[in-house]
Sequence to fold (199 residues):
Amino acid sequence: MKHVIEPYLPEHAVDSVFELIREYGVHLKIVNDRVTRHGDYRRDVNGYHQITVNGSLNKYRFLMTLIHEIAHLVAFEKYGRNIKPHGVEWKSTFQKLMVPFIRPEIFPSQLLPLLARHFRNPKASSDTDATLSIALKQFDEVSDKNYIFEIPYGSHFRIYNGKIFRKGAQRVKRYECLEVSTGKIYLFNPNAEVELLPH
Fold:
């Protein structure tokens, strides 16, 4: 199993991650990219703990996603199945599991202060922390996607499901964007990945 996960993780995280997988009896599946999620956890009918993680994630995001999902497993085992999926029990479990990995041998130095801040109160998705998400993206393989905040006001863009929008004004943190076909306004996080369309 260790040789399977090795290419997906920072080198100095492999042994510790492998121990967590063994300790908690995780059935890990590395899957093709899913747009709506980086990973998920579920207990199957036979009681196996199955975690899936997108294989296209960079090593740092893969590590965070895998630990995020293991935290679900550990929190459910410790506190029972009636807890909120991203409630206080999960947050404290995720913090406890993640803190040993937040060190310079594992993460690049420019990510460490952002990770320290994020893990004071981790969110359901690291994507909702725009600053951390943008910092993590620089380690992705080159993509033809842009972030909403990067594209010019009034420009048209396409999202993963093919819908086309026109970028509008920024409202506090998010951007108001008009869906071209319906005229409806939607709010987008600044770090939403979109495909900029030619005029």
Notes: Residues 65 and 125 are 9 Å apart (CA to CA). The mean pLDDT is 90. The first strand starts at residue 26 and ends at 31. DSSP finds six helices and nine strands in the chain.
